[in-house]
Amino acid sequence: MVSTTAGKVIKCKAAVAWEAGKPLVIEEVEVAPPQANEVRLKILFTSLCHTDVYFWEAKGQTPLFPRIFGHEAGGIVESVGEGVTDLKPGDHVLPVFTGECKECDHCKSEESNMCDLLRINTDRGVMLNDGKSRFSINGEPIYHFVGTSTFSEYTVVHVGCVAKINPTAPLDKVCVLSCGISTGLGATLNVAKPRKGSSVAIFGLGAVGLAAAEGARLAGASRIIGVDLNSKRFAEAKKFGVTEFVNPKDYDKPVQEVLVEMTDGGVDRSVECTGSINAMISAFECVHDGWGVAVLVGVPNKDDAFRTHPINVLNEKTLKGTFFGNYKPRSDLPSVVEMYMKKELELEKFITHEVPFSEINKAFEYMLKGEGLRCIIRMTA
Ligand code: CXF
Ligand code: ZN
Asked: What region holds the Alcohol dehydrogenase-like N-terminal domain (predicted)?
């Protein structure tokens, strides 16, 4: 398929964040053609992740505006820049906020997904190639976000941040695998690795935590204990295989003690998906001595410090952390899409809302109210 727009500037609609915390405005933007090792994508579906909201609110970091947010999405390659050999126009893809150059020590290591060249950088608003933005309005640059900027009908992405997937996979469903769901799922399957019949505690029952629970269910865990300060989340969590619930507010002792008592010495694995430092400490201390493994996924506040008695470590409890569930985006995401295609992994239950692109601000309202899990934004009518 040869695109008629290749090599030309494309004018299209994008949701521009002009100022921190102010509703996005749908504007006509110009999207420059992809340069070397870049591809231009037509985004068909995108969904909102907490990280978009966090940086839109400009909490705790230097604000970079105007900016086009968005990093969970599915689309089709429109054109490719020089040197791109493994993608062609028409390919179905998921853009990802963290990349895989396939050449650095991390990409070559089986253990890491922390690519030296393309790992997440939330401060950079320009492309690596020339330090410039591919988006503009009347010649003025509009900045990128985490190399993806999917709240636009077209976007330019580094080829290392694009996973080519099965073209028959429905993009309105698998787009959620671009970030949150893969993050939670991989944290359990790739890092915590619970054994069949084991116990797993999940801290935080939002989309990421429920995806971590889904991973525990797939791994055959027999007890999946959901921990959340909001008891309203418990009913929904049952659909994700959570078997027991603990609200720390219901007890007058630390939740790790509650969990240790419930499990006769501690859970086999725990996955922390809240970003609260107290939850992180509890998630570590609640695992069984001798073999327990705790995995941190949530993003902490800038000044947080993890405090625990070293005896916990001497007693053979392991603390680990991961981002994007240790998945290498280009090498591993296609097989996560296949898990969905084979009906091993259900994505529909994560999708609680859908809005047309013109109503993208509603997706932000749902997220801010803590309503639902994922809101799909349909880019074309
Ligand atoms: C997060 C992962 C940890 C750093 C900030 C971004 N991922 C995407 O939402
Ligand atoms: Zn995200």
From this structure: 36-165
